[in-house]
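ingest -> fold -> write
write: protein_1
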Amino acid sequence: MNADLIVRVARVENFDPAPGPRTDTVVAVQDGDIVAVGGQEVVRSWAGAATDLLEFPGATLTPGLTDAHAHPVWGAIEVGTGLDLGGLTTLDAVYARIADRLAEQAPGAWLTGFDLDVNVFEAGPTGRPLEQRFPGVPISLMTRDAHSLVISPAAVDRIGLTGAETFDDASEIVLGPDGRPNGFVVELRAMDLVLAHYPEVPLPVAAGHVAARLREFAATGLTGLHALDFAAPSEEVYREIERTGELALRVRCSPLVPADSGPEVWEAVAAQQGIGGRRWHVAGAKFMLDGTADNGSAWFEHPDVLGQNRRPLWKDVAGYRQAVRFFTGRGIPTATHAIGDQAVRTALDVIEECGHAGSAPHRIEHIESIPDDLLPRFAALGVVAGLQPAHATRMTRADQRDNWSHRIGPRRAAHGWRTRDLLDHGAVVAIGSDWPVGVGDPRAVLADSQLRRPVDRPSTAPVQPGQRISAREAYAAMTRAPALAAGATGRLGRIAPGHLADLTVFARNPLDLTPEQQAVNPVLATLVGGSVLRHSPRERAS
């Protein structure tokens, strides 16, 4: 029997933890699966008249990179329609960008933006300065952590917020000294009251934004991502893209189980399992046990300098325990957002009580600051640690003169994003970007993980340099580890017979390059199930 496709490169690299001498240069693919790996003998055994031969002289073939934590649908729509405030460090700079956008849109229309750095507000985030500069304009700006909004008084009035709104979880409409909403809206339930008033984006437009973003991700080496959400219009968007074409990569979706929800909601999420299309499917459930340290809604054992960051997002932690047990008993793996040390500890305790689902291990996501005693528990319990090291490098500073570090204090800040320590304690670490909260180019994320500073800012001091990891460890955390986290170790994450032909073709072997060189290592092609997508070499995606 002949192969459908044969790929020949200079080297096949699997990022094995203890590599031996390997000379593999050829991979044969049939019906989307790898059927042989080796040298010229693979060509002789598997090539036929109908076999496509794909050659990349000098290149390295690796398992396809998988971003273990991203939000592709709402992220692509937000980025495609909103105002990008990334990189702006002063309120005047924010004003200038808003003014430019207002000059382009109709009077009275909503202005929405994203990636707002809360550090631009000297006395804490509030929307009232927006009214002084842009009177009567409804403005809503999503903060960099995507867990809060800063909205103008005109937006407060248009929505009808009073400050008397109550929520099942720790969401909040923050009040000013006068007892009225000050424009700071914290956590998802409260944010939903604002987002519901955003201008509707037609489905074809939304699908276009998502499809384009997935193609950009593919051009940076991704063949898959784990979408830690499945809110509307996710299903409609994926189906619309596949109605006329293909997703550029595979997407594994885990719907959010809202904080303090009950069995009726849990049953609905359980019923979504297995929904899917050609390159996307629903598997697993996402929990948010706490919020974010930057806005005071994370759950630490001790409060921060403002007396905040001391409560769970689930007011009823016993309910969280029951929900994890519910999904585990139905064979559905969970991923718990846990940023503060007490949130991580509680999630580990609950997983220890409940055990794992049969289909895949439970995961804990973010793990921004934890003490020493929690490190060995990940490996002991078989819990996957989902980390975003680029949050450390791009959202905090080595001198701790940033909001995150200031709020939680120097001792806890020094225990941030402990990638090296978790690996040394035997944990499986799956690296993600949290895009659009973080940088989406996996090459930059992987380089940052090795440098503990932004790869594109060589003069920046590293954040906790002792947490650096090697190139081999970093790339394994975006290939082998996500496969394990998805319960797909026999199908994804390695180049071996029986595995899916999800592959990345790099111009050069990342293991032979410095982190700086890795970040601009051209991706020549990606393969998803043996289907080839060639890419024009470029240094970095937006």
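write: protein_2
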Amino acid sequence: MRAGRSGVSPVMIGRADELRRLRGLLDAARDGAQPGIALIAGEPGVGKSRLVHELISGMATRSGTLIGQADPGALGRPFELLLDALDGAAPGAAAELQAAIADPAVGPVERLRAGLDAVRANDPDVVVFEDLHWADSESVALFERLGDLPGSRLLVGTYRPGEVDRRNPAADLLTRLERRYPVTYVRLERLSLDDTSALLTAMTGRRPPYRAAVALQNRTGGNPFFLEELVKAAGGGELDLRKLSVDPLPWNLADTLRRQLDELDHTQERVIEAAAVLGRKVPFDLLAVVTGLAEDDLIEVLRELVRRGLLVELGDDEFGFRHALAREAISEQLLGRQRRRLHELAYETLAAADDSDVALIAHHAKGAGRYDDMVAAVRRGVEKYLRMGSTYQALQLAEMGLAEVPDDVELLAVAARSAWLVGLLDDAHRYAKMCLRCATNTGERSGALRLMARVAWESGRRDEMSSLIDRLCETIQDLPDNEERAAAMAAIAQSFMLRDLTQPALRWADKAVELADRLGLPDIRVTALVEKGSALVNDPAQVDSGRALLREVADEAEKAGVWLAKARALNNLLSTPYPLSADEQRDLLEHMRIAAEKAGFDSLAVAAYFQGRASLAIHDGDLTAAIAAIDDGRRRDQGVLRTSQGDDYHGAFRAGLALEAGDVDLAASISVRLMESMSAFSKGRTGILGLAYHVACRQGDQAAAERALDELLNAADGRKIWGDMLHDLVSAGLFARIAPERLRPLSANMGGFAENWRTLVEAQLTEAERHPAEALDGYRRAMLADDLPAAVRGTAHVGAARCLVALGRRDEAAALLDPATRLLENWDGWRVAELAELRDLLGAREHPVGGDSQLTPRELEVAHLLAEGLTNAELARRLFISPRTAAVHVSNILSKLGVSSRTQVADRISSAAPGTG
């Protein structure tokens, strides 16, 4: 995967950890007396060459490199890898030695010595031998001997494990290197779905739709070369990625894949063709029936196909292609009748067995043209997949059936529910709407309305949900007391709970519970109890009862196997201020994630889970851990378009953390993207507008901040603003010198259990209004509020100290510096800046670092990393800040320590370390 090829990604995707390891080895080799050795392994096209390119392109100078590339015909040409490397070296360097290496008249020992001398003469920082599996024995021996040469360099070899056998010179090399030197192995795996999505984004300039990303991931197996070849073959301009996922293979790629069959005999070819038709995972017994081979004969054929790398053993008695595209290429060259006959045999065999996968039965029924049998299998399969939590698979299976019976209400309902659970809200809305249109009785109409109402809420269309619930209330008046009526009552209770209408939510939840108990419907009973408990925790007077009920119903839901109800119960429990230890909250969060995964509910299994982890880190006062959790969540959320609004579950949260870290540039870029994709109905509209306002404040643009505040106040009318958000908004406004009276209307919409947040915000506004004595009391109460995050309590300490200074009580103010420092020791940004300003105001010194210089805890962390030799870019990656913020930290450190270079920083840090000097 050469970085210079046209059409490839402009950035490397999914290999940041591997690149960091190699750079660390290079730095260690430069500092040591012996070379470092790294072996990069991976299948063809997985990105070994691209990783090497990124390592070399990041070096200060590329002249100190030797790169040799083997090719399939190199085995018979001695020292081919070294000669190829020297051809790319500086002209004239070791020319005589190079001639001796290439001269077959010179003895092998002398040529080896000349090769070592040539490398020493060029004195490279990095020596790379690519594709060692094709290397000649002399090049392999030279690579091993390079480890004995003195000097500070990194030796890198790349190879394909599947092509290294006992007859290959590289096989013994791997064993001998491990015995003689410390060797670092870097194994490159295929890209995950989120990395595939990121690669598509890099190549096309826009995020891919979820379905297209999944289809291309499945089609290419996460192999970046295959993915790039598909994109290149589609040409430039606006690519339709959905179409790309089903278009025929480019001829060059298909030909490359089919060429693997050239040396197969007739029986092997028959087995590989059958496997190509039978699917991704092929059971041994099914393959035996379809091919008609005896067990021993089939074992022998499969052993050879696995040895050649055409097939892999996926599990007990299951086989599949190493590359999905190879299966596709082979299947495409078969005659249609040949494919249908194989599908027919597979269908007959699977249908006769008791434990066959119904999805596989449906697939082969469709391939055999037996469409009635396919629909029957689909009906059996969708419910099975939903129970397993395989919601996307249930959706795909339902859509297979709908292609034959497009007006089937049952399958439309399954498709709508599955799409909702997996987060494909546009598809869920479309299928639910079709379900309502095709409904033939009151029960079907009720079910469709339930689905449409929930999807409307998830899509931020609150008024539409209210209208649909009104229709649902009218519809179920004509229903008898049955399961659908009970489910509709629970859905109505949920709609009122989501809108913070506690009393009607409780009334409808009790109705649903009563009917579910009477009819013996445990699934609906626990679902209704979740709505009741969630409504109770929204009422401060009944919060304790609600918490107890949610814990109870979570246990009941687990016993009944209603995983969605359990996940929602725990999520809603964790969303309220709760007197639990951090360990207990983490335990609940893990149980919530497991239940959500079993239910196949992505928004809780991914988005809510990682936001929960970030919230715990925030409460503990660890900003770096909070950022890491959200970044992990954003990666695992695939970075793909699930809806037409392009929802970014974590974007606003991440931007808020960027603002906390002082990285206004990153927050601004996220804010712009969220504002561009925000619809008039966006559920997070208030939060996105608040973010834009916050960014304007921190950028010092008071006019833009004032305009954004007006828009925010209009959007917030009648909507809740949570306490932490309100504190952020008021803090930002005061920083931008917006008048306190302009900010007070925001607090009118404070929602949730916000007493201590309200106290803190009131103290901030009162201080800004120049009433320090009144503000001091509020700050002191906030200082002691355990439900406020550590950094926020640190800010309360700073505010209290400022008020004490204003009241002339400087000694009392100084006494608050140490506890504020402890609370903010793992934080950054404006909170730490306010503490620094207070120290300056009081003339207080921080803990010294190296003599009489003063570094904040964050600056001390940066200084230690500088001492390790990290660049600004590396600092930014390590600390999850922007390079600009890293540069500011470095500048401050140099200034405070009174030094002019990073080396001097390292000397000062070293001299200040315990036990030195």
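write: annotation protein_2
Strands lie at 36-41, 65-69, 126-130, 154-159, 183-187, 282-283, 311-315, 318-321, 721-722, 750-751.
Residues 99 and 912 are 55 Å apart (CA to CA).
pipeline exit 0
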